[in-house]
Amino acid sequence: MTESLYRDHLATLQARYEKAMQHYQIDAIVLASGDKSYYFQDDHTVPFHAYSGAQQWLPFSLVAETYIVVQAGKKPRLVWPVRDDFWHAPNPVPAGEWQTEWEISPARKDDKWFSSLPTKCAWLGPQPPAFATKVEGLNAYVDFAKAIKTPFEINAIRLATKRAVKGHRAAKEAFLAGMSELEIHLAFLSASQQTAAQEPYPGIVGINNHAAVLHYEHKDPNRSARPLTLLIDAGASEHGYASDITRTFVRHDDEFSALVDSLDKMEQGLAHQARSGVDYRTLHQDTLTGVAHILNEHKICHLSPEEQMAKGIPQVFFPHGLGHLLGLQVHDVGGFQVDEAGTVRKDDNAPFLRLTRTLEENMVVTIEPGLYFIPMLLEKMQASIPQHGCDLSLIERFKPYGGIRIEDNVVVQDERPINLTRNEFQLDNPLS
Ligand code: GLY
Ligand code: MN
Ligand code: MN
Description:
There is one protein chain. By secondary structure, this protein is an alpha+beta fold. It has 2 domains: about 1-135, Creatinase/prolidase N-terminal domain (Creatine Amidinohydrolase, Chain A, domain 1); about 150-425, Creatinase/methionine aminopeptidase superfamily (Creatine Amidinohydrolase, Alpha-Beta Complex). It contains 12 helices and 15 strands. The chain has helices spanning about 1-25, 50-55, 140-145, 150-175, 180-190, 255-270, 280-295, 305-310, 315, 375-385, 390-400, 420-430; strands spanning about 30, 65-70, 75-80, 105, 120-125, 205, 230-235, 235-240, 240, 245-250, 365, 370, 405, 410, 420. A 5-stranded mixed β-sheet has the order 4-3-2-1-5. A 3-stranded antiparallel β-sheet has the order 6-7-10, sandwiched between helices. The chain has a 3-stranded antiparallel β-sheet with strand order 11-14-15. A hairpin with a 6-residue loop joins β2 (about 65-70) and β3 (about 75-80). The model has no long low-confidence stretch (mean pLDDT about 95). The chain binds glycine and manganese (II) ion (2 copies). GO terms for molecular function: aminopeptidase activity; metal ion binding; metalloexopeptidase activity; phosphoric triester hydrolase activity; proline dipeptidase activity. Keywords: Dipeptidase, Hydrolase, Manganese, Metal-binding, Metalloprotease, Protease. Its cofactor is Mn(2+). This is Xaa-Pro dipeptidase.
């Protein structure tokens, strides 16, 4: 099953790239995985992540200095690095059915494998050599198509979700047992079977007011005397494809847990709207309106949702975008592109929104609304929004909880979007 998914995936890529070569009148495209890079004045390398455009072609994690040559009507060619090196583990070409679809050329560092390439040959990836033909717009052309995932890619994201969900369950248990952020992160890594360097992005594990720091990457090794909230935003990878999942767990049934329930309900409603033809910018605006309703219902802000929207109150509590494309890159390429020519569309009303496209079937997107009590933004609101209508003493009570974010990964469909994250949480534990 996976083998046929991979074969079809490869055929789709070959067709996309042949169309691009025809469009730009070029005879070959080389995709380079990239080189290792070293920390300044050190002999340790930065964890390697292959250029996603090259990674997309293969069903295992690509190593550095690997090249793919694509030509019309030919099997793709994999130029595989052969190292004469006893310092590191050997690097054999991975075994598997996939090999039947490829021409494989092992090459040593100094081999001139590129001397046989056609003259009009474009290069995608880092460090294009002098012989490469510069093709303005080629990168945007191929990136645009990447938003639509093949069944093989959707399956990879599903498998990445499966592993991450195991981690989230372990993290929840560790939190309820009173563990520190560091211990919770280690529990997440162990259950999702990965090292920190293999995470698709540095996991965010924030207890209490740390949940109000959007990119909180520190892991406090000390246990909290009074843990209230855990916000964990952490994913896993499957040969490069990422899952990107956030959950907010609480320990008490109180006014904050009621807020979590409201946001959770809103999030599920938004995920359900991820259908073909929907402008993602509209979904973001719907989220702001939804946050305004929640603020009003929970008596955090006495203004009506319409008055709140006019004054920019929801943005004080929800200052980021609703989500983004998901794929080989966590914030996947092409989110601002409205066409294959590379025309970019930003949303002036939502400067942090990373996806401004109209949704199409088989795009994979995140849906990640939040509601936070961020001291800096609350102070700004008090200073700059007269008659903000917010109950400051209630807000003081909420500040120690930090905030809430709930993030699912959703496959856009014409009718019923597929919520990979919820599906996996349900499979894992039918009672949840
Ligand atoms: N974890 C990064 C994000 O949610 O976009
Ligand atoms: Mn996330
Ligand atoms: Mn995300």
